[in-house]
Amino acid sequence: MGFTSIRTRHFLPMLAILAVSGPGSHSLFAETSPLSALNEGFGLEVSGYNARERGMGEAGLASVNRQGPSIPNPSKTAFNEKTSFSATFDTDVDWLQDETISNRTTSFVIPDIALNFQTRYPVNFGLYYRQRFHRNYSFTPPVPAAANALESYTTEGGLYELASTLAYSPKPFLALALGYHLLIGRERTINDALFSQNTNNEDLGNSEDLKGDTISIRSSGAYPSISLTIRQKTFAIGAMATLGATLDRTKTRTITSMISKETSTSERDLPWTLQAGASYKPASNQTLAMDASFEAWDDSYSPLLNPAYRLGAGYEFQGPGGVYEPYYRKIAYRGGLGFEKLYLDETDTYYLTMGSGLPLGRRGNILDFAFKYGHRGSLENSLWTEDFIKLSVSLTGVSVWGQPIRKRP
Amino acid sequence: MFKHLRAVGATAVAAFAAAALTSCISDGPNKTGGVFLAQHGILLQDTLFHFTLKHLPVDTFWTSEAATTRLGDPDIRHLGDAYLLAGRTGDFSAESRMSFEISDTSMFDTTLAADIAADSIQDSTAFWLSLYFARPSNSTLGLKELAATLDSNRTRDTLKFEVQSWDSTSNNMSGEAWVQKLGMWNRQYLYRQDTAAVGVLPEPFARDTISIGTRKAFGADSTQKQKLPNLSRRMLQKPGFKHFVHLRIVPIAGPNSDSGAAMLRFGGWQGDDVNVRKNPLLLFGNQATAYANTVKNRLQPMAVGSVRAVNYSLRYDGPRTDILTGKQRGLHVVLDRAVVLDSIDAALLRLGKAKQTRSTDGEFDLSYFVPFAKITLPLDKPTLEGGFPLEMQLTTAQDSLLGDTLKGGIRIDEIPDGSTKTIWKTYEPGHPESVLDNVSLSYRAIDADLRMVLLRYSKDSSNNDTIYIHRESTKEWIASLQGYGKSYLSMTLEAGSSSLTVRSYLTVRPETEKNSFIDPETGKANTDLLELKKHFVKTGDTSLTLRATHGFQHLMNRTATGVSLLQDFTFIPVGSPALDDSVAIGSKNVPDKVPYPVLSVIPPKLDAGKLQVDVELYLFPLKAR
Fold this sequence. Notes:
By secondary structure, chain A is mainly beta. Chain A is built from 3 helices and 17 strands.
């Protein structure tokens, strides 16, 4: 019954990865970037793709497969034939560089968990959690500007999304989906200052450090989405659009050992977005995919904000192996590349990806891996550059839980 | 199946390795991007200000004693103490008190019979009851110095004390009634603060005069047995009943020119069994030696709850502004926030620094963070008994009005003689509309000199209390309030002929500053008393400097728009403040705290009745965020 079809042994590799990457990481946050520090934004946007699409250059909006939820394009889940779930795990190494110094940091995060329920009718119901934006950046100057005060800065948190989607396939070639997305924001920026390191000064050696001068921002909002997928035997196209959202934000300042009742409220807008993708199957086990997306950020709130877009393209080779063939012939192999103009500070990102998909048993469960190398920023314009390597792992499980395979008219 | 697992395993190992690699590659705290942050206004270039505010005027100052949670029971902290004080020294005088329950009436009969037989004493005028003292010998710390305070040229060999006795019997009482009576009697006799309360006690039923050897009290054999013939005679009148006996050992004042005083230390309650001989005892029988060996010949102080019924009260008749050890009296130094801020602004101006914008609204000010502060109190020739260095501590709190804990203030009320006034109300936390208790004070004249003050709670009557105060005198009274945690209601009572003046406030955020210091070399807290001694008050010191970081953090943090915030810095001795640094084991000096109560006087230096302090501050300007 249900998810028990994914057997315990399938989780062991995942547990091994978690056991190593989790405790070894410095925090449960993803991808350090100085862009996180900009209060004008919400941090870096997290890809909603799972490891399959990430391995294909973060493309695959229109690439229909038979299992697994889809956060970027819920409509294509209407073509699914079983209830399914997926969870993605990211770990990455960021190499930041400015004009004087470089620094490597590691991080780990679970960016999304999604469920897709099969019903008796050609309607699928989806639920998912994802991290939409994240802040993760800290800075401690190598040489304090003031000799007796070593200040540091940290930002963390982000915008998190809970969504429900309803996907419907009225015709075998057409699927539509509506979604409603709740946004919950938890962001913090923290200033610390150390004085007690002045051990040559008896007074300051016995001083108390300023810990946790913190601005906390809590926000909430919601927006609807619509998506569609049209598929044919050799190609498919898909699109998803979201309306803008207004976030109600509450800002609070707290400082350890001091009292504060400072609270202010404000509103901030998230823009509408449009994503489109196409896929082509030159052979039954090969897929070419290309995606484009646009986010309508403008500079009305801050000149640091700009329209954002992304282009990604990728290729997948699905091993044709049958039940009795060697396992390596059943593995999917992927590759891709892309370009992204971030919504903050006109920052460019270039990336290359590789990936693979490992089937787990005969039901359609799959373990996808993606490896991404990216580069963003420039010393001339951004005053920093960032190179990162990201390893993503998605576990997709399918089940007959709920209703059995539907019969199409 | 195995191929399947092998492939999954191989991939998992690869992922495992990649994950392990990413986890290992880290340079620690991120040091890149500073220019980017600066470009966007996130500057980390703030400077820590450091300056001293000299001669900062003190708004008000006064003294109070620690742990006086209920003035009706002020010496509850000495109840069951290991040491007792008796005698006079300087402006100090102390009386010891103890209660005994004679529940075995055969002690009278058998002992008396034995005495009569042995000494051929035929009537009840023979004494057969004695009071026994001994100084505990388990610690010699500080003893040499305390003995040295007995100036051989001035101190008499013996001091005379009056032993005042109250004796009650179980005549016509049930067992339960007897137990209840014992509790009531102990509260009435044992706990009371000073002889002011005697005014409302019955006259002692018996008075005996005893002489206690002063030098012997500090000698190798300090045991002393003193006969109580008048009490014996009184008790022999009712030998067949249980007895409650309360004794007070009151020093007999000498002439004004008397310089032969001494303050003696005896064992209070040192425990049972092997320590019996270190406790005060009632000895039965004329044959009893200095220490009675048999249980039927000796009686220890009775149990009062979990402690034993020994206590002492210590009076100080010197200036009310003196800081004292032995009484653990502290000096409250109250600073006005507005005055401090003006002084800070002026100091920053002198340093050529820009001052932070002062908050004009809101309840809390986040202009500055105080990493370190210390406050210096000028002293006027401290008198340290035994020459022991004394450890002091600083407690801080904000003075605010009950009902408005955000703003500072002291409430002043006048209560005419014979009347009652409801002064405070306590509220359900977060619900000012829901009154929990009405708290009132009543003022009554007992006689021409003595006044009674009653504290009454409308609901929580268990906290009701009564104190006695001499006319034209002043006392501090601290009351705990339900729902206010460590905060307490502080009252200063000024007993006038026709009315009582009450100055009251609620402490907010009371806190004790750290007394430990970090060793700069090791980074660990220094616990070496010899090292810490430099922070103690020593003979000849002209000032006392204590850490005041939290006090100034709280002072700077609170805006209290439109009302002066009064921050209370209390200089007060720690529980056992005296350090004996003369003890050596072999070639090693092993300092430790003196276990005996040590009576020292630390007067603040006043200038025309006013007090000024120096404050050294480190201020870190907080960003407007």
